[in-house]
Amino acid sequence: MEQVPVDTKEKDSNKTPVAISSETNHDNNPIAILPTREGWSTPLTLYNNCWLRSHMLTKFMLVKEKFKSRHDDIILATHPKSGTTWLKALAFTIVNRSYYSFVNVDQHPLLTQNPQNLVPFIGAQGGDLDYLETLPSPRLLATHLPLSMLPSTVTTMGCRIVYLCREPKDAFISRWHFDNKIAKGAKTDLNTAFTMFCEGCSPFGPFWEHYLQYWKESLQRPQEVLFLRYEEIVSCPLKVVRDLAKFLQVPFTEEEERRGVDQEVVGLCSFKSLSNLDINKNGGVERAEGKLFIGYSSLFRQGKTGDWVNHMSKDMGEKLDRLVEDKFRGSGLKF
Ligand code: PAP
């Protein structure tokens, strides 16, 4: 399967809100009355029980109505800071391995482009809806949106979804570091960020709603929704890569496994390999009309599990564990 890399220069702009009234008058502007909170690197607005970056809200609001899913779409859905960059790299490399063969590994797109730019986000950040229409099938797409903000055709058409989440304490610490790194203005202290996270107010949060929506979908459509955790890729990358290839309907052949192609995918997409590339050390992109600078290096901080202990108190850890237990009770989902 071939996926055309996204031209980020053209598609990164978030400057043009679409199809929503630009009136500032609250009576005429439905967005202006939505709850908005400061605290993270940019304000968040609550829409459909999901906290979204206010400057991207109008783009995300269009997805449910305007995104035209196709039955053979593959959607990489992730809660932020759960390893999206890693999953995009792995899935892109797996599905395109006959096109970008490992014989010419020095020409592989991952060597010159950040993985985030190789798989477009639905409706934003390089994946504007008109652009997605131009992609050949089967499309490899990504989203941080909760399932409830995607069109129901994603379910009814049987689109395949790979969902990736992460142990919430680690996801929170990764979020906190990332937000402070990309913010050009004031930084958020840990306690403030923690309170907001536990209240469900973080980009694409509440995190528990996000996890639960895709978890339930994976129980209802087990053949079409693969539910993954960051921790299992860290502990068994080769197994996940093989399972992922099967799920994506491009399993490794015995001959490929003999040649170690699956291991090469793991190696090429590893934290060590990607974080040492010039593009990921020195590249980056401006967002939010220049208010944020996302240096690609900020997508490669540590790449470890359990780092929360180095930043959060025992009490904070226990509080978040209790919240997680409470929110996921009865669902079968555990951390
Ligand atoms: P996003 O939410 O902005 O899309 P995402 O890639 O999901 O970013 O999250 C970044 C986290 O994934 C970082 O975790 P950390 O802060 O705990 O270090 C980053 O290090 C980790 N990550 C990115 N690429 C890899 C990789 N190849 N292997 C392992 N972890 C990775």
From TrEMBL:
<dbReference type="GO" id="GO:0008146">
    <property type="term" value="F:sulfotransferase activity"/>
</dbReference>
<keyword id="KW-0808">Transferase</keyword>
<dbReference type="Pfam" id="PF00685">
    <property type="entry name" value="Sulfotransfer_1"/>
</dbReference>
<protein>
    <recommendedName>
        <fullName>Sulfotransferase</fullName>
        <ecNumber>2.8.2.-</ecNumber>
    </recommendedName>
</protein>
<comment type="similarity">
    <text>Belongs to the sulfotransferase 1 family.</text>
</comment>
<feature type="domain" description="Sulfotransferase">
    <location>
        <begin position="72"/>
        <end position="332"/>
    </location>
</feature>
<dbReference type="InterPro" id="IPR027417">
    <property type="entry name" value="P-loop_NTPase"/>
</dbReference>
<dbReference type="InterPro" id="IPR000863">
    <property type="entry name" value="Sulfotransferase_dom"/>
</dbReference>
<feature type="region of interest" description="Disordered">
    <location>
        <begin position="1"/>
        <end position="31"/>
    </location>
</feature>
